[in-house]
Amino acid sequence: MKKLAAVLLTLVLLTSYSASFAEAEWDYLVTVTELESDHAMLVNRENLLAEDYIPDDLTRATVKCASSSKVDLCKEANEALAAMFEAAALVTEYTYRVEGSDGTWTEKQFKSNEGLRLILKSGYRSYGTQKTTYNNYLARNNGVDDGISSPPGASEHQTGLACDVLSVDYNANNQYMNDSFYQTPEAQWMEENCHNYGFILRYPADREDVTKVPYEPWHMRYVGREIASYMTANSLTLEEFTSEWKDKMSAFLAAGGDVEQQMLLEASRRANGVESTVLEEYGEDGDAEISLTF
How far apart, in whole angstroms, are the C-alpha atoms of residue 54 and residue 133? Predict the structure, then answer.
């Protein structure tokens, strides 16, 4: 009798757990697997990296660099950046915009058999290097911290996932980077297409109130294609995206969801050839639609 009661209790508990997990369905358009990855991390002045933080998969950048000094990136970011550089080089015609002295914008046509020529200005920086970079910037800027250079621990470059990308011509003709870089076909092409390679424009124009960093049309941040596509479709900064998905995660856990079980489910779907893609189409709720392919 006791044995039967124990079996019945076990069945009740298993049924209860299964029902709880079923109710806690993960319906967010970005997988838990991606959100739990290193490339989803948020780094800013409120979310600092430790002084001893060093990515464990740094590799030398394989794209054209602005100097002979070694530039490192995380392996996945490096491979994605190489793919983006290759794609840019195939763009022989591109329409972009320039601003006139009267403040009006007009279209110009880029044409070149060489394609769009990108060049990597910088990638991974250690905590110590960022500390020197920050102090040097303050010295040049009369000690004023205007948000352009991040203090040590607050720089995305320490993640190995961030990189500064310019055009070859802009790099050759400008001593310092500023938002005039936007008026190049390379900058506008990257802003339009970088999500296809897993990058986001980390500090977009008119979002300084959220990022606390002035517009940087050269600053690319690798977050993976799934996250980059979702953020681009919904016009989110990394701060906004992080706040959004953490709210979803809190609700999921409160409803009895299990992160490890969800990641196993997602791994099973990938193994069976199920892939999700965020579309640039919107439902009645205003959210981007998702496509499942098998």
Answer: 17
Domain ranges in the chain are 23-44+226-294, 54-124+160-222
Return the CATH fold of 54-124+160-222: Muramoyl-pentapeptide Carboxypeptidase; domain 2 (3.30.1380)
User: 277 Cβ partners below 8 Å, 6+ apart?
Assistant: 229, 290, 291, 292, 293
| Cβ contacts of 60-64, under 8 Å, gap ≥ 24 | 61/120, 61/123, 61/163, 63/118, 63/119, 63/120, 64/117, 64/118, 64/119, 64/120, 64/168
Active site residue ranges: 216
Cβ atoms of 202 and 238 within 8 Å: the answer is: yes
Nearest to 160 by CA among 231, 249, 56: 56
Do 226 and 31 contact (CB within 8 A), yes or no?
Answer: yes
Distance of alpha carbon 294 from alpha carbon 218, whole angstroms:
36
| Confidence tier at 19 by pLDDT (50, 70, 90) | very low
Distance of alpha carbon 113 from alpha carbon 229, whole angstroms: 29
Q: What tens digit of pLDDT does each residue of 27-40 get?
A: 999 999 999 999 99
Identify the pLDDT of residue 272.
87
Global model pTM greater than 0.90? no
Whether 143 has a pLDDT exceeding 50, the answer reads yes
Q: What are phi and psi of 98, to 5 degrees?
A: -130, 150
pLDDT at 83: 98
